Amino acid sequence: MEAVRTADQCKHEREVKQRFRERIPYIVDALVGSCGGNECFDHVGPEPIPSRDAVIEIVHRLNRILYPGYFLSARLDGVNLGYYLGKEAIELYEMFAEQITLSLRHECVRHSLPCIHCEERGADIALRFMEKLPGLRVILGTDVRAAFDGDPAAKSCDEIIFSYPGLFAVTVHRVAHELHALQVPFIPRIMSEYAHSLTGIDIHPGATIGESFFIDHGTGVVIGETTVIGKRVRIYQGVTLGALSLPRGAGELLRNRRRHPTIEDDVIIYAGATILGGETVIGAGSVIGGNVWITDSVPPATKVFLKKPELVFKAG
């Protein structure tokens, strides 16, 4: 049977806990002292910072606009479509203008750059991006059809839009790529890494991808910053379109140079293939087999595959 606690015991325990609690300010002082040094990273200063949560909300708003009627509970028809898209568009524009302005101002203040009139420029870039939305809807339509044509397991285009991780990753990439082209800091990469975290598909916003692009299954796909992909290309899970290994300290020298391959039109790349290098070109109409490693160019209409491995069966 548990002994009855006395008032003195309770008082002693409260005093012990209070002594522990009184140590917290010393820890806080140490944390404050660690800010501003070269050893740790922090964002302490007068400049505002873009909101990752707001950027993620923008991604979902864009999904609702680019695929009207798929990602909301209300019904859309000819009567309310204009009202719905108008409401979504103006809210999206205002969120975009705010976050782009924050990203621009952050760069200006953080790096002591000349004034670029962040508010006006942020609003202008947001509007210029919004003007691209009708064209984005058209090219994403080609991606949906490519997925349906390339996957016999797909029962409908609706199923692809609702559930295919490859389409979600490509949708986010096409948005992020437009923002990257408009030289918006931070936001394109936040978007691409959010899609990466959900799908396992890592596409750098700088990569250029043509229409009718399909990633089947998708997990483990990596597409580097300077990759150029043509039209009607299909790739499978585990494919890497990457850069060759860099010597120590070479990153800054190669930062703005071509480091990733070019994939021409109508190429198929099967699971686990690795294609590396900025001078590597996979010619149009080629088929790259699974698990191959390529660092040299491949002529058009070529099949590249490994020899059939020898299987060993042991009884018992």
In short:
By secondary structure, the protein is α/β, with parallel strands linked by helices.
Describe this structure in words.
With 316 residues, the chain is α/β, with parallel strands linked by helices. The protein has 2 domains: 46-200, serine acetyltransferase, domain 1, CATH 1.10.3130; 207-246 and 256-305, UDP N-Acetylglucosamine Acyltransferase, domain 1 (3 Solenoid), CATH 2.160.10. Helix content is 44%, strand content 9%. It has 9 helices and 14 strands. The longest helix is centred in the N-terminal third of the chain and has 30 residues, at 81-110. The chain is globular. The protein starts with 6 loop residues before the first helix and ends in a 12-residue tail after the last strand. The model has no long low-confidence stretch (mean pLDDT 91).
